[in-house]
Amino acid sequence: MHVQVIHGPNLNFTGIREKDIYGIAGLEDINRRITARAKELGIIVDIAQSNSEGEIIDIIHSCYKRVDGIIINAGAYTHYSYAIRDAIKSVDIPCVEVHLSNIYSREEFRHKSVLSPVCVGQIAGFGAYSYLLALEYFSLKWSDQNGKD
């Protein structure tokens, strides 16, 4: 199984900005955790971060016929980027939307995700563990599809 992780805008400042919301772990620390857990689960993982909507779309497009799953934290684009939504839908690859914070306990504008209708699920509020839980989903899904326990 091959999974693409996409970190959206401002996630490169995780561990620096709003530590009370996003935690003290930096993006490199989060990526190390993702990579280590993926290895334990037998998942090949590619990780990318961009602050640019167009670049995120390009990363999603590059997943077509290359990966089995996508994990995306689109940051603020979650709430209004129909272009990212359309890109996810166009590649027809299972995608899990993740958020470090619980978006439903924050400002009202964060309560709506335009991405979730085209994702298989959403995981929010567990900090860096949100990504690891998404990896667990893909591992279990892959095992179920391949008859492995």
With strands numbered from the N-terminus, the spatial order across the biggest sheet is 2-1-3-4-5
Question: Rg from C-alpha positions?
Answer: 14 Å
Stretches where pLDDT is under 50 for at least 5 consecutive residues are: none
Major sheet: 5 strands, parallel
Number of domains: 1
CATH architecture: 3-Layer(aba) Sandwich
Tell me the fraction of residues in β-strands, as a range.
15-25%
Annotation field: number of helices: 5
Large-scale geometry: globular
Distance N terminus to C terminus?
15 Å
Please provide a brief summary of the model.
This protein is of the alpha/beta class and 149 residues long. It has helices at residues 19-22, 27-41, 53-62, 82-91, 129-145; strands at 2-7, 44-49, 69-73, 95-99, 121-124.
Describe this entry's structure for a reader:
With about 150 residues, the chain is of the alpha/beta class. It has a single domain (about 1-140), classed as Dehydroquinase, class II (Rossmann fold, 3-Layer(aba) Sandwich). The protein has 5 helices and 5 strands, in the order βααβαβαββα. It has helices at about 20, 25-40, 55-60, 80-90, 130-145, and strands at about 1-5, 45-50, 70-75, 95-100, 120-125. A 5-stranded parallel beta sheet has the order 2-1-3-4-5, sandwiched between helices. Helix 2 packs parallel to helix 5 and helix 3 packs parallel to helix 4 (about 80-90). The longest helix is centred in the last third of the chain and has 17 residues, at about 130-145. It starts with a strand and ends with a helix. Keywords: Amino-acid biosynthesis, Aromatic amino acid biosynthesis, Lyase.
